């Protein structure tokens, strides 16, 4: 859906950013100057006590000096309400009293259908709440009493009861005029294989409504009252409203509590979440009947930088924790991790709170272990390392785990910590960087490896600056000519942009550069999501003369610009990766001539990505005068077949 020109500007003018943000924060009145539109508060996106979150009401942007979150009113609603761009616009438009432009009929029909499903779900919640008060629910009420769940808690979580009748809900809701197909599509009822009348999916179960971050009921969970039931817990199926892997139980209240400084605790199920919340740990969530997914991890990190995974202290709990560790390793970033709170054996959070009180649970959470501790525990617990072969096998496993970490800084710190733990275990240290990508295995190799690395990275600063300039030209060309995004989509998605500002613009560009989108509308959407990133990008002075990145340039010129920028970026990425892997594969004392040769090849590769293409000779003489023979040329071509290695420096035939 395209918004008319000026709509977003009018929206931002009508709804001050301070009004939007003010619903989620408490302003620091001593630090704020409301008359000048200058507001400060503790950040709603991460745990803090000081007021480092700044809102500039005149410019319409917010920025946190702690976690670096930034954006405008639309971006703030997206982040805090967990909605998409258009939904955020609609929320603000309603607040501003503005009428949304007419939508595409098909999109409007889909949105209306979702609204109908949500209404049917809310009617089901009301029905089950009433059933909990009936005589048929006496056993369910007794169970809730044994679990020490008060009436207020039952009301807060909307707990209900599904009677044992085959069509109790179906008859009640169809009697209110809700279509049978709507109940089936919402996952409340199921249709038998013989094509008969739909029947209730939940029967003789305590009902737990599952709500999204905005508080809308999107599905149900049910605990069986019959010990012989096939499944003790049952969740609703995947529907247009409900995606198990992209939602968390109690997400809305947990986000609000985490914004007030509570740690985010991830429990196993509904009753654990409820017990923890009732004991004062309001920022508690749980996955929905599945193992934690990547989307759920990212959702947790949007609420808190370091969620605490609460685990049962048995073998099954440890296995579940290690699955989360393996999932999280490639996703780690600076300031974004996980901790693991291991409960006493045989106790879940509810058991611990009932037996020893909330203070005992607080101690478990405060003593949560970092991920690296669980990784070490998995590889060493119950094993004997009484031979060089067993110790080498341990080193290999640890190295493989650390290499899965994408962030180089975190990878380095994991290597340092694992080396420390290894020294504690064996009484002597593996050489520093043993578990780092590209690290050495022998202490005697340290000096030569250091020399090799220094020579490889001597020009890193200037090359990084040049690379960022190339990225800026690439992004500017795509923003100005969005039709090129689909043509070069695979190459663009493979780019690892250096700066966070460039990454924000790239993520927004890939979402909104749809066929037929207007450049002005696209820029408005990117600006709404990337904050000042787009404005800073387009204001760069070198873009005023860069071909293909200026308005008015022909599409074929822009296409040539994008193609060249992607080729250069691919060359740099491939060269860096190859050098790291080559250094890592060197065992023992490295051959000095080999590391020198890698250095020369690497320089030639970087130079190869710069100049115009020429005929491909058999011999390359790099700018430093080093000859590369045919074998080296062929090796490089096989490794990087998208690059013409005949470019750069002088060339001659032997």
Number of domains: 4
Q: Please report the number of helical segments.
A: 28
Distance between the termini: 61 Å
Give me the Rg, rounded: 29 Å
Mean pLDDT across all amino acids:
79
Give the uncertain stretches in residue-range form: 429-433, 437-461, 585-594, 611-630, 635-654
Oligomerization state of this entry?
single chain
Q: Please tally the β strands and state the result.
A: 18
User: Which percent range fits the helix content?
Assistant: 40-55%
Q: Strand order of the main beta sheet, please?
A: 12-11-13-14-15
How much of the polypeptide forms β-strand, as a percent range? 5-15%
Pfam families: DNAG_N, Toprim_4, Zn_ribbon_DnaG
Function: RNA polymerase that catalyzes the synthesis of short RNA molecules used as primers for DNA polymerase during DNA replication.
GO cellular component, one term: cytoplasm
Subunit structure: Monomer. Interacts with DnaB.
Ordered list of secondary-structure elements with their pairings:
Layout (H helix, E strand, L loop, with lengths): L6 H8 L2 H6 L15 E4 L11 E4 L4 E4 L5 E2 L1 H9 L3 H12 L8 H27 L6 H9 L4 H7 L2 E3 L5 H7 L5 H6 L3 E2 L8 E2 L4 E7 L5 E8 L8 E3 L15 H9 L5 E2 L3 H9 L5 E2 L8 H10 L4 E4 L3 H14 L10 E4 L6 H8 L1 H9 L2 E2 H10 L7 H15 L5 H19 L19 H12 L2 H21 L2 H5 L1 H5 L6 H13 L6 H12 L2 H6 L16 H30 L7 H17 L10 E3 L5 E2 L1 H10 L10 E3 L2
Parallel strand pairs: 11-12, 11-13, 13-14
Antiparallel strand pairs: 1-2, 2-3, 3-4, 5-8, 6-7, 8-9, 9-10, 14-15, 16-17, 16-18
């Amino acid at each position: 859906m395209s918004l008319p020109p000026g709509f977003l500007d009018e929206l931002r003018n009508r709804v001050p950013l301070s009004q939007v943000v003010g619903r989620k924060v408490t302003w620091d009145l001593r630090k704020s100057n409301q008359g000048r539109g200058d507001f400060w508060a503790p950040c709603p996106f991460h745990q803090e006590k000081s007021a480092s979150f700044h809102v500039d009401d005149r410019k319409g942007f917010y920025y946190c000096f702690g976690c670096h979150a930034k954006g405008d009113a639309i971006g703030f609603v997206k982040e805090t309400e967990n909605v998409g761009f258009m939904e955020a616009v609609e929320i603000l438009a309603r607040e501003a009293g503005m009428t949304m432009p007419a939508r595409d009929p098909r999109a409007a029909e889909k949105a209306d259908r979702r609204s109908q499903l949500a209404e049917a779900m809310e009617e089901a919640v009301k029905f089950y709440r009433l059933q909990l008060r009936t005589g048929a629910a006496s056993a369910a009420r007794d169970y809730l009493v044994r679990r020490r769940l008060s009436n207020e808690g039952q009301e807060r979580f909307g707990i209900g009861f599904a009677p044992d009748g085959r069509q109790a809900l179906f008859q009640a809701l169809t009697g209110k005029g809700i279509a049978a197909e709507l109940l089936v599509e919402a996952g409340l009822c199921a249709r038998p294989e013989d094509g008969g009348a739909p029947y209730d999916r939940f029967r003789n179960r305590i009902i737990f409504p599952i709500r999204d971050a905005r508080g809308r009921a999107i599905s149900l969970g049910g605990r069986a009252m019959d010990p012989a039931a096939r499944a003790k817990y049952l969740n609703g199926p995947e529907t247009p409203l409900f995606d198990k892997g992209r939602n968390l139980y109690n997400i809305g209240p947990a986000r609000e509590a985490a914004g007030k400084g509570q740690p985010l605790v991830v429990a196993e199920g509904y009753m654990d979440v409820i017990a923890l919340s009732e004991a004062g740990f309001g920022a508690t969530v749980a996955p929905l009947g599945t193992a934690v997914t990547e989307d759920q991890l990212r959702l947790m990190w949007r609420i808190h930088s370091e969620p605490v995974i609460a685990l049962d202290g048995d073998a099954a709990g440890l296995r579940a924790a290690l699955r989360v560790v393996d999932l999280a390793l490639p996703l780690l970033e600076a300031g974004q991790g996980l901790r693991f709170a291991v409960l006493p054996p045989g106790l879940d959070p509810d058991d611990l709170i009932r037996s020893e009180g909330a203070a005992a649970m607080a101690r478990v959470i405060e003593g949560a272990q970092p991920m690296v501790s669980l990784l070490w525990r998995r590889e060493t617990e119950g094993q004997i390392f009484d031979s060089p072969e067993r110790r080498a096998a341990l080193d290999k496993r640890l190295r493989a785990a650390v290499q899965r970490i994408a962030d180089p800084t975190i990878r380095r710190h994991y290597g340092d910590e694992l080396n420390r733990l290894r020294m504690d275990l064996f009484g002597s240290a593996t050489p520093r960087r043993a578990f780092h990508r590209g690290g050495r295995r022998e202490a005697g190799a340290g000096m030569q490896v250091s020399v090799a690395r220094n020579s490889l990275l001597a020009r890193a600063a200037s090359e990084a600056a040049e690379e960022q300039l190339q990225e800026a030209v690439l992004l500017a060309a795509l923003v100005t000519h969005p039709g090129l995004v689909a043509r070069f989509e695979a190459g663009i998605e493979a780019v690892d942009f250096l700066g966070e500002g460039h990454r924000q613009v790239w993520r927004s560009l890939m979402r909104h550069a749809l066929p037929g989108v207007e450049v002005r509308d696209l820029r408005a959407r990117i600006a709404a999501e990337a904050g000042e990133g787009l404005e800073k990008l387009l204001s760069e002075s070198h873009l005023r003369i860069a071909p293909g990145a200026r308005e008015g340039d022909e599409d074929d010129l822009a296409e040539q610009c994008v193609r060249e920028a992607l080729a250069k970026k691919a060359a740099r990425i491939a060269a860096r990766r190859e050098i790291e892997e080559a250094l890592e594969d060197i065992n023992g004392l490295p051959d000095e001539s080999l590391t020198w040769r890698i250095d020369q090849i690497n320089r030639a590769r970087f130079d190869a990505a710069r100049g115009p293409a020429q005929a491909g000779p058999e011999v390359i003489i790099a700018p430093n005068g080093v000859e590369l023979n045919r074998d080296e040329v062929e090796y490089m071509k096989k490794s990087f077949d998208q690059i013409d290695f005949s470019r750069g420096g002088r060339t001659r035939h032997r």
